[in-house]
What does this fold into?
Amino acid sequence: MDTKIVKIDENAIDHEAIKAAGDVIKKGGLVAFPTETVYGLGGNALDPGASRKIYEAKGRPSDNPLIVHIYRMEDLYEVAADVSNDAIKLADKFWPGPLTMIFNKKAIVPGETTGGLDTVAVRMPDNSIASEFIKASGGFVAAPSANLSGRPSPTSAAHVIEDMDGRIDMIIDGGSSVIGLESTIVDMTGDVPMILRPGYISGEMVKDVLFKVDYDPAVFGDVTEGLRPKAPGMKYRHYAPKGELMIIKGDRDLVVRYIQERITGGLEQGKRVGIIATDETAGYYRDATLLKSVGAREDEESIARHLYAVLRECDDSDIDLIFSEDFDTPRIGQAIMNRLIKAAGHNIVNV
Ligand code: TXA
Ligand code: MG
It folds into this structure.
């Protein structure tokens, strides 16, 4: 398949290009598009055939439900039943934005889109290319992150091209994602909102609005046997780098010293060694094959924004051993570490 790549400027939207992208979706095709979190791989959410194509293009198990993206509040009621006052309060506060809410689904949403569940995940993204595109597509775009299953979510069109060129009809290049981590997922079907996947919007921020919040134990990386995460996608080891990834936790000096010893040891064994550091610490490391700063500890948003690109670079450089500092920052730290710990397969050393 020939994949058309179209550049669109968020500040000067080309409406003809958006219309052409919308037409692809209306005809049952697939278009990757930018959002503020990560790039999405879009298809018509109300068309079972389009959802099947999405799973096929990603190489993803079809029991993993898709998020339905909308561009205006009234459309929520078309796909979701039993929308509570709490959900309306969260939508008022955080939509458009990096928040996905789970509701009981209406019959119009095919089981193919929800992985056979009776519930549906809905999000209104905060990116004008995304909203115009969803509108031009008929209003309901099912979209997982636009990576091949097992790779980090794409935060630029170049990442999407790496994974999806030749597999989908069109890729909209709208520049780099501002947030860089997937949305926070909150289950709104119970009395207390439950965080299923942490993201830029923290549980505390939800609690500030509703005065209550619960967390699915899977959020804290609890992998107890028999404990199934409520978001089916959270059970998969999302992304494993080709090399072995280890997270090193502890006081900064001890972490730096430990990692430096491992660099030396790894190189002696003929391994290619990658380091994921921060602006504050990158200057302390010597001789690593690849030394990347993910951003400044002082600026946790920069860490979230760059994490996936850095993980992709480790693969591109054929790194055998990756040592990462931990990034337990105040607000988004839980989301950042949730993704990093998964990528490391829970390989953590406390020094
Ligand atoms: O930021 C995002 O959410 C991005 C952009 C493109 O919007 N999308 C995204 O989609 O991350 P995906 O498919 O990679 O992750 C969706 C997660 C999966 O873990 C899935 O299991 C969960 O949402 N999910 C979807 N529908 C659900 C439902 N009805 N109940 C529980 N979990 C659900
Ligand atoms: Mg994903």
Observations:
- The chain is about 30% helix and 20% strand.
